[in-house]
């Protein structure tokens, strides 16, 4: 695997997490294939015997990238648990001695530059984990579709059936307050920032946490994929409507009456 943001992932424990997940399958850094950051070696003579174990191995191999990408999120979840514990320990009189700043203490801001101009920002606090996506819309129509889709994410949570979903916030032009202090952030109509707020119930156990991570790290691709699909659908509907209009116009053309005439030599011609 070669991935652009590997230096950021390695900083947040991706190598250690891969070693824990893949064990002896993971090749050491010194023996990794040239021009790649991660290599796995599978011994075909020592494959698992049962179908269930083989299926599990295939699933682990297929999730290599998502497993590496999950390291910053798992680190943030661990930080949140620690901050929550410290927050509870500072309750009552002890909190008054430590001051209010202790209650609002946050973990390190993790920056994953997963694309050339786009990044994921992850930060833990005592009661939540905040995940911010920065994305760029290179076409004017993409900006319009993107604003519509992202506003739907914000509005959908008002439904009673989605009250347990993560809170979603969208801002364009101006970055969110959590990352506004970072240098080099882009402003303007071409840029959008989507904030997901994950509460402990979204990562309370390993299976729930893994499900949340696998879904949220694909959000950027999910958004731009549906923008392209919507544009393709709109274009197909427009072409269909234009074809229907052309049929109506062709039917509305009046038929021009013609008559045959003969010349003195007996030749015939048509006149309107």
Can you describe this structure in just a few lines?
The protein has 272 residues and is of the alpha+beta class.
- CATH architectural grouping: 2-Layer Sandwich
The overall pLDDT average reads 84
The order of strands across the largest sheet is 1-2-3-5-4
Number of strands: 7
Q: How widely separated are the two ends?
A: 75 Å
Q: What's the total helix number? A: 8
Structural class: alpha+beta
CATH class: Alpha Beta
Biggest sheet, in brief? 5 strands, antiparallel
Overall spatial form: elongated
CATH-assigned fold name: Yope Regulator, Chain: A
Count of spatially separate domains:
1
Helix share, percent: 40-55%
Range of strand content? 5-15%
Radius of gyration: 30 Å
Please characterize this protein's 3D structure.
β1 (110-112) and β2 form a beta hairpin. α4 (64-89) crosses α7 and α6 packs across α8. The model has no long low-confidence stretch (mean pLDDT 84). The longest helix has 34 residues, at 219-252. Helices cover 45% and strands 14% of the residues. By secondary structure, it is α+β, with helices and mostly antiparallel strands. It has eight helices and seven strands. It has one domain: Yope Regulator, Chain: A (2-Layer Sandwich). Strands 1-2-3-5-4 form a five-stranded antiparallel sheet. The protein has helices spanning 6-11, 14-22, 51-62, 64-89, 92-98, 140-156, 206-216, 219-252, and strands spanning 110-112, 119-124, 129-136, 167-172, 191-198, 259-262, 268-271. The protein starts with 5 loop residues before the first helix and ends with a strand.
């Amino acid at each position: 695997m070669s991935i652009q943001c590997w230096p950021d992932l390695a900083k947040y424990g991706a190598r250690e997490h891969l070693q824990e997940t893949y064990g002896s399958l993971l090749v050491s850094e010194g023996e990794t294939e040239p021009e790649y950051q991660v290599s796995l070696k599978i011994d075909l003579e020592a494959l698992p015997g049962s179908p269930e174990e083989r299926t599990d191995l295939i699933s682990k191999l297929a999730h290599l990238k998502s497993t590496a990408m999950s390291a910053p999120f798992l680190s943030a979840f661990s930080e949140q648990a620690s901050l929550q514990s410290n927050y509870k320990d500072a309750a009552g009189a002890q909190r008054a001695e430590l001051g209010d700043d202790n209650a609002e203490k946050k973990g390190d801001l993790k920056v994953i530059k997963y694309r050339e101009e786009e990044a994921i920002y992850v930060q833990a606090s005592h009661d939540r984990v905040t995940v911010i996506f920065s994305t760029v819309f290179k076409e004017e129509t993409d900006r319009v579709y993107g604003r519509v889709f992202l506003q739907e994410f914000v509005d959908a949570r008002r439904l009673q059936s989605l009250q347990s979903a993560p809170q979603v916030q969208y801002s364009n032009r101006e970055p969110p307050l959590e990352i506004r202090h970072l240098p080099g952030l882009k402003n303007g109509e071409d840029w959008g920032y989507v904030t997901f707020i994950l509460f402990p119930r979204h990562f309370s156990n390993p299976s729930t946490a893994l499900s949340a991570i696998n879904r949220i790290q694909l959000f950027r691709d999910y958004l731009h994929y549906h923008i392209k699909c919507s544009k393709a659908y709109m274009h197909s509907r427009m072409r269909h409507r234009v074809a229907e209009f052309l049929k109506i116009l062709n039917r509305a053309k009046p038929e021009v009456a013609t008559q045959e005439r003969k010349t003195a030599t007996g030749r015939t011609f048509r006149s309107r």
